[in-house]
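Changelog excerpt

This revision adds worked examples to the README so contributors can see how folded entries look when concatenated. The first example is reproduced verbatim below.
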Amino acid sequence: MQLLKGRINRASYWLIVGVALVAILVSALVFQRPLPAALVVMLIAAVPRLHDLGRTGWWAGGVFIALMALFFGGGFVIPPQAYQNTLGVAVLVLPVLLSALGGLPGQAADNAFGPPPPKGLSFKPVVPTGA
């Protein structure tokens, strides 16, 4: 699982997120349903981006689990109006989180997840030498 190790820069992150969002939009327009695999791609891109910020990738996993619990199980436990309000908040919070990951500069020096990624687009995460 080399994709979940190392670090990627902001440009690479935005390219991955942009392609995933286009895939979601095209799938929603053509097939009348969004493409769940694109969300997984964004999750996979978030992990090395978090590494570039010096954070563990488990933060992305926690957000993903919370969203899945909300989308697939929340309607059974929460009254309908409260569930709609909660979904609305989630729809507003997710773009903020994506923007924060893509907007915050990574650490300039080596960190626990490896050396800084190269400038520009890079499709291969920079993996620590001991991995």
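The second example, added in the same revision:
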Amino acid sequence: MKPLNPSNRFVPIIVLLLLLASSLVVFSLLYNMALEAGQKVSGWTIVLSLIPFLLGLWFYFISIRQRNLIDSLQAQIEALKLQIEAFMKSQKKESSQEVRKEVVDYKKLLEKIIPITPTDDIAKYGETLLANIAKTVEIVQGQLYLKDLQTEVFRFRAGYAFFSETTPPEYREGETLAGQVAKNQKLINIDNIPEGYITILSGLGKGSPKHLIIAPIISPDNKTIGIMELASFKPFGIEHEELFSLLGRKLGEIFNVNQQ
């Protein structure tokens, strides 16, 4: 329903005045007719002449009531709009604060994950690193591979909850998924990995995680010097991909210094 504009607000009053004028005209005509006929003006004549005016008066009050109702609804709508705008601004502000908080959280997570111990003993350092990842992200298995600068081969250096009846495989850039990650320098997030691809042993028996992230470790001069394979029973989200991408860069700085 469209609100009445200022000019339309005077319409009921104008109509009421016109009806009053018409009532007076009708009464005047009936009165003159009665005089010409030599009759007195009866009460019915007065009532009949006032009917248009009374109808107009009823229309006027209905119009006033409708206008007040419309004004009230408009005020409520405007108040609701202001509330919605305030709510949207508040949500936008909270959202931006959450984004900033997530950036800060990544830094805190990296501080919790990266060991402060020396890297002289790579195996021990790697085990501590993977254990910290497990505590923070709830992985159930992890493997760390570092590149042998002489042979250009990625060799297993540390593991977490790792079980294998054979020697851990070695990779070259471009070979297998891990080698492809090393070549492309891009993390991959895999869901529904085949049964038996990864085996977890515990007091409850064997289990096979369905979710795997393979992340490259990249040095400051933009070379892949390591690979992390991390498995979980829960899916990895975008926030995990971001975390492990940042971790790969940080570890690249640490291991690059150790190799020099």
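Reviewer comment on example two: The chain has a mean pLDDT of 79. Residues 114-259 form a domain with the Beta-Lactamase fold (CATH 3.30.450.40).
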